[in-house]
Amino acid sequence: MNRKIRWGILGCGKIAHKFANDLKLVENGTLVAVASRDEANVKSFAKEFGAGIFFTSYEAMVKSDVIDVVYIATPHGLHHEHTLLCLRHGKAVLCEKAFALNSRHAKDMIDVARKANVFLMEAFWTKFLPQYNKVMEIIRSGQIGDVKWLQADFGFKAPDPPAQRLFDPALGGGSLLDVGIYPVFLALALFERKPSTISASIIPYSTGVDEQCAMSLTFDNGVIASLSSSFSIDSPVEAVIAGTKGRILWRNRWHNAIGEIELVLDKEEPLKIDVHRETGYGYQFEARHVGECLLKGLTESPVMTHNDTLRLMETLDDIRKVCGITYPVD
């Protein structure tokens, strides 16, 4: 299949704008359609990003024969519904994280994709960024020895009044699924397993979800992760990965394409590590990967696998259970 992958975007919020912007940098893909139930919004979005078609119905878009893959950019409380809608109409899906509200919904989505033989991947963009790949390269090289400890955070001060999605249990509100998912993802990616023990506590919001969450994950290979998330403060958003010979300092919003990496060996001064950078926000890397998978006829990413997604969702479920966070769909 020697052609460009035709993208549709479901939802026209902030993250959809960023993704559409970065699709312009993707050689194997092009934006052809966008859908939103807000007609004025979808018209404006289509005009801004050059989508030739817009829909005011999600159902109409997934029935279209001009789309190969749909990027789902709606709040995570709607991901289960919208992913199944796409899959049942034969559309490949790149679903924004959090992939679902719980592992039961995630498994359902993956089962439907597998039975339909349709591509499905969680849009965990961090795993495709040059910074992430450089960090993993340093670790695999043995420069910092055996990794024993991770500290990672992600917090921002929620606006006043806050967006409904941030604190509504029905929408999977709370800092854990919105931003705490990043530190948890990093721990699981580094150690390639679920934690053997979890200690966690929250500062609850009035709706019952977490305004802040602190987590300590212990793994059976002798490592520990100290993680946190917050809607109360602007945290450093940094990660420290420490091994027996040195450590990696991942600074300046470590989860995205502007994060800076420093390497410290023994007691030496930090050494800045250069990485390949591109214009854009950084979503082009995962979009390129999806295009490559579809052009090869794959139905699952070899980089962000279904098992990776299930392991992450199951761990988030376990953390919520420890903290007493529940959603109506549970």
Report on the structure:
This protein has 330 residues and is of the alpha/beta class. It has two domains: 139 residues, 3-Layer(aba) Sandwich (Rossmann fold), CATH 3.40.50.720; 149 residues, Dihydrodipicolinate Reductase, domain 2, CATH 3.30.360.10. It has ten helices and 14 strands. α2 links the parallel β2 and β3. The longest helix has 18 residues. The protein is globular and about 60 Å long.
Spell out the key features of this protein.
single chain; 330 residues; alpha/beta; Rossmann fold; Dihydrodipicolinate Reductase, domain 2
Secondary-structure blueprint:
Layout: E1 5-10, H1 14-23, E2 29-35, H2 39-49, E3 53-55, H3 58-62, E4 69-72, H4 79-87, E5 92-96, H5 103-116, E6 120-123, H6 130-141, E7 147-155, H7 164-167, H8 175-191, E8 197-204, E9 210-218, E10 224-230, E11 239-243, E12 246-251, E13 260-265, E14 271-273, H9 284-295, H10 306-323
Parallel strand pairs: 1-2, 1-4, 2-3, 4-5, 5-6, 7-10
Antiparallel strand pairs: 7-11, 8-9, 9-10, 11-12, 12-13, 13-14
Helix pairs in contact: 4-5, 5-10, 8-10
Brief overview:
With 330 residues, the protein is an alpha/beta fold.
- Our Rg estimate from Cα atoms comes to 20 Å
Count every helix, treating DSSP H or I runs of 4 or more residues as helices: 10
Low-pLDDT stretches: none
CATH architecture of the largest domain: 2-Layer Sandwich
Under CATH at level 1, the class of the largest domain stands as Alpha Beta
Spatially, the strands of the biggest sheet line up as 8-9-10-7-11-12-13-14
Shape designation: globular
Relevant CATH superfamily of the largest domain: Dihydrodipicolinate Reductase, domain 2
- The total domain count is 2
By DSSP, the count of extended strands is 14
Order of helical and strand elements:
EHEHEHEHEHEHEHHEEEEEEEHH
